């Protein structure tokens, strides 16, 4: 059964069949090979999405779309530009900083790409940056959407590996800030070297004025994250609060969302949510079948035999996840692999929260690596260029994040220091 499933999935990938359909077809054929009851497929697909924490996914997607339409993202850009936009290369730094702030509410890298990219990619091009560089920068910066909490992949890892989502969220701040600072330092040095961005400070608002205009937007992550860590509401409930807050700010305070806009916003959110949920349902069925076949235990024993130390295990897992992330969507990869790898990591004495951050950061790289990087497609759509044109500028960004990944992997306190501080009380 396992051989049939894997062979079918690989063949479908080679034929450019979508990830969700590939996994679903492989699972159906696996059931057929064992002559099991086909009702298993419906039952397990339903069980995969019938989990309360997953309700946060459509709400965070809707909140991100409301922020984009309601003027919140534009004000965050102006605020970030008022902080770092005055130096050479300030506009690319603004892109990174804005994505970092926007990520503290949206939970989705694709939503971050569209919401921030629609504003900053044209601005970067206007200031003389190559279109391909602007698209590569935006795609990379938007990766922070799944690393800075709240994060949809962290929710999926928490559900799949039975790890506290609250702990994962607070552990995500260290890696997210590390990657943000590394990217900002890199783009500053790179722009100095290239001679780009000497006019980036033009049109920059004074800090006080930008802060005043973005006040309601900046209050949003404070309420959401403060409510989660203050014990006022759960991460799932926080997603609903985010929607309500974005709606009130967009319609009543900023008055940039009209009733006529709501249908388009809801339609866009439903379509995005349906795609993710379909992937989760099919990946859940696939994970159930390979678990029932004993594959996780077999892989776990094999890894323990081959990789004798925690350091070697983490190196092997990072290499495997980097390759897997190029071809399999992040959500599907987490749902399938987390139940397999997390117990092995615990066997090696690795904290499951730390391991979760390693998985999320590594697989998030798949969002900006060809051939199936969703952030790349989103950024290319906004910039109106082909994928092959941005690869040249993309490689340095990938190397920067890989360097950060190694730090996150082998320096656990980057992820766990804040978690231990908060949950030790």
TrEMBL record:
InterPro entries: DctM, TRAP_DctM. The chain crosses the membrane at residues 6-31, 52-71, 91-121, 133-156, 168-190, 211-232, 238-257, 269-290, 310-328, 333-350, 356-382, 394-413. GO terms for cellular component: plasma membrane. It is a multi-pass membrane protein. Residues 7-414 form the TRAP C4-dicarboxylate transport system permease DctM subunit domain. Its main location: membrane. PANTHER family: SIALIC ACID TRAP TRANSPORTER PERMEASE PROTEIN SIAT, SIALIC ACID TRAP TRANSPORTER PERMEASE PROTEIN SIAT-RELATED. This is TRAP transporter large permease protein. It comes from Variovorax paradoxus. The gene is dctM_8.
